[in-house]
Amino acid sequence: MSALMQVLPYLIAAYVFLTGCYGLATSRNLIHAVGCLSVCQVSTYILLLAVGYRSGGTAPVFSDIAPGTRPLVDPVVQALTLTDIVVGATVTALLLALVLQIVKRHGTLDPDELRELRG
User: Fold this and answer.
1) What pTM was estimated for this model as a whole?
2) Which residues contact 46 (CB under 8 A, 6 or more apart)?
3) How far apart are CA 13 and CA 31, in angstroms?
4) What's the average pLDDT block by block, 10 residues per block, for the chain (119 residues)?
5) Coil, helix or strand for 70?
6) Which of 47, 73, 77 is nearest to 61 (CA)?
């Protein structure tokens, strides 16, 4: 595997994270900001899967092979990625519910118009 292919998932994760951060910094809509936070969360999925990848690795099921004869994919990283997906979906749902309450109380999606929230 070439050196670029070993670094490429990390570069993609960094690019996706920075894209989400840029969208969050330039957002003038609360729903758009929640979407940008979700994009930042996706970069963690890419990063976790890149860390757990093994070239030529198989599933860690030992019923048909002797332990230590083949490279295996790390199942803990896959479990962490699934947990990250569930937590990300929950946080997104909670943030969208908060945005809905802000719209009901203040009548706007623009964070600059929320004068009551300023200290």
Assistant:
1) 0.81
2) 9, 12, 13, 16
3) 23
4) 83 96 94 95 91 79 71 85 94 96 89 72
5) coil
6) 73
